[in-house]
Amino acid sequence: MNYRMLALSVDGSILKENGRMSRTTKEAIEFVQDKGVYVTLCSNRSHQQLEKIAKHLKINHEVISYGGGLIAGKADKPLHAARFPVEMARDVAMELEHFSCQVVVEHESSNLQTVSSNHKIS
Q1: Cβ pair 113, 93 in contact under 8 A
Q2: Which of 45, 49, 61, 121 has the fewest Cβ atoms within 10 angstroms?
Q3: What percent of the chain has pLDDT over 70?
């Protein structure tokens, strides 16, 4: 049987618990790429994080990030993007302001923005 594509889960599969990749794993990925197999990465991680791992593995095409919410090689040219409507994101952020928590806002084309809330539930 000839395989044409290999989709790899990043966390717990190609990266160890310490966030590093073994030499054996990298060599195995290079081996299948040399055989003409299209290798892509899948993760719940952000697109920026996945791009760094893909670059390390010399994967220059689409990756599946945000748990399938974005499939893209370049974040500004996605094949698929399932985004929250702005109104829904605003409503979620406003609701979280009632709790003592840290809110992280993330977008595929920008860095992480962190907003701290020190409100306590009364």
Answers
A1: no
A2: 121
A3: 86
